[in-house]
Design goal:
It is a single chain. This protein is an alpha/beta fold. The protein has 10 helices and 12 strands. Strands 10-9-11-1-12 form a 5-stranded parallel sheet, with helices on both faces. A 4-stranded parallel sheet has the order 3-2-4-5, with helices on both faces. It is flat, with a radius of gyration of 21 Å.
C-alpha cells in the first residue's frame, strides 16, 4: 500500500448543480416560503435522493401523477419537463401550476413542435421511460420515434426516409449520441440536424472534465443517484477514458474501502443534480483515509443562470407590492 503522502484526489470542475437544477430546486423552496406546506411536485424535481429527501422534510409532497394532487392545490413540474397532456390534466383539476422545466429542455420541446408542424419524422435519441423523453415525445407523439441506443437504428422504419430529423435527451453521453447519429445518417443520408446541439452544456462539461482526469486516476467516484442519467453516464465515460475502476454513489457512506487497494489517485466528480455538500462529504471521507491532497482540475467555467419560473417571479412581485402598500 502506498504511503499516505503519495495519495491524491483529482477533483473535477465543473461538477454538481447546473443552472437548470439550481432553478428548479429554488423554485420549490420559494413556493414553500411563499405559500407554505404542502407544495406538490410531480415526479422528482431533480434526480437526486438527497434533494428530494431535504425538500420533503420542508413540506414538499412528491407524486407520480397530477391525479394525486388535490384539486386546486399548487403543483411544481420538474426540471425534466412535461407533455401537453400533463398540463391539460393539471388544468382539468384546477391546479395552480409552477413550471420548473429546464429552459434547455423547453428548447427541445419547441423544436419537436416545429418539426412536427412540418410533418417531419422526429428520431428522438434517449431512454424510453425517462421523464424528459416522455415530455418531449408528448409534444409530437404521432411524429416521434424513440431511439434508445445505436443498436436500435437498424430496425427503424419511417414514413419518408428523406424527411427525418434527430433530437436528443439533454443528459446523454455525447460520444454515444454521436455514434447513434452517425448510424442514423448511414440509414437516412438526408437526416436533418437540430438547429443547435441538444445535449446540455452542463452534461458536456462534466463529461469533458472526467475525460481529462480519468487517465490519471485508478479510481473514479461519481456522486449521483441511480436514476440520474447524466451521473450514470459519467461512470461510463470514466471507464472509457482510462480509469481502472469507477463507481456511482449517492452518499459517502456507500463507499467501499476495498475499492482503494493499491490506489494512489482518486478522481471525484458529481452529476448535474448533486449539491456540493455531498461532494464535500466524500472528500472528508477520503481525507480520513490519507487522500488529503486535493487538486481541482478545471476544464470549463460556468456562469449561466436562469431566471426563476414566471409564476414564482409573479408571486414574489405580488408579495413585495403588498409589503410596500
Amino acid at each position: 500500500m502506498p504511503s499516505s503522502h503519495s495519495k491524491r484526489v483529482l477533483l473535477a470542475a465543473p461538477r454538481g448543480y447546473c443552472a437548470g437544477v439550481d432553478r428548479a430546486v429554488i423554485a420549490v423552496e420559494k413556493a414553500l416560503e411563499l405559500h407554505g406546506a404542502p407544495i406538490y411536485v410531480r415526479k422528482e424535481i431533480v434526480h437526486n435522493k438527497y434533494v428530494v429527501e431535504t425538500l420533503t422534510e420542508r413540506g414538499a409532497i412528491f407524486v407520480s401523477e397530477t391525479e394525486e394532487v388535490p384539486e386546486g392545490a399548487r403543483v411544481v413540474f420538474s426540471a425534466h419537463g412535461v407533455s401537453p397532456a400533463v398540463r391539460e390534466a393539471a388544468n382539468a383539476r384546477s391546479l395552480i401550476s409552477i413550471d420548473a422545466t429546464c429552459p434547455l429542455v423547453t428548447k427541445v420541446h419547441k423544436e419537436a413542435v416545429r418539426f412536427a408542424r412540418e410533418d417531419q419524422t422526429i428520431l428522438l435519441i434517449g431512454h424510453a421511460g425517462h421523464e424528459e423523453v416522455e415530455g418531449t415525445a408528448g409534444e409530437a407523439p404521432k411524429n416521434t420515434i424513440i431511439v434508445n441506443s445505436p443498436e436500435d437504428v437498424a430496425g427503424l422504419e419511417v414514413a419518408d426516409p428523406d424527411n427525418v430529423v434527430w433530437l436528443s435527451q439533454t443528459t446523454l453521453s455525447v460520444d454515444e449520441t454521436m455514434e447513434t447519429v452517425g448510424r442514423l445518417r448511414e440509414r437516412f443520408p438526408n437526416l436533418q440536424d437540430p438547429p443547435s446541439d441538444d445535449i446540455c452544456y452542463a452534461t458536456q462539461n462534466r463529461q469533458v472534465a472526467v475525460k481529462k482526469i480519468a487517465p490519471d486516476v485508478e479510481l473514479m467516484i461519481v456522486v449521483g443517484s441511480a436514476n440520474s442519467s447524466n451521473s450514470v453516464r459519467l461512470v461510463e465515460v470514466a471507464l472509457q477514458s482510462g480509469a481502472d475502476a469507477s463507481y456511482r454513489i449517492d452518499r459517502a457512506r456507500e463507499i467501499d474501502d476495498k475499492w482503494f487497494d493499491g490506489v494512489t489517485s482518486v478522481g471525484v466528480t458529481s452529476g448535474a443534480s448533486v449539491p456540493e455538500i455531498l461532494v464535500r462529504d466524500v472528500l472528508d471521507y477520503l481525507a480520513a483515509r490519507g487522500y488529503d491532497t486535493v487538486e481541482e482540475v478545471r476544464t470549463a467555467t460556468e456562469d449561466l443562470m436562469f431566471s426563476l419560473p414566471h409564476e414564482i417571479r409573479a408571486d414574489l412581485k405580488a408579495r413585495e407590492a403588498a409589503a410596500s402598500a
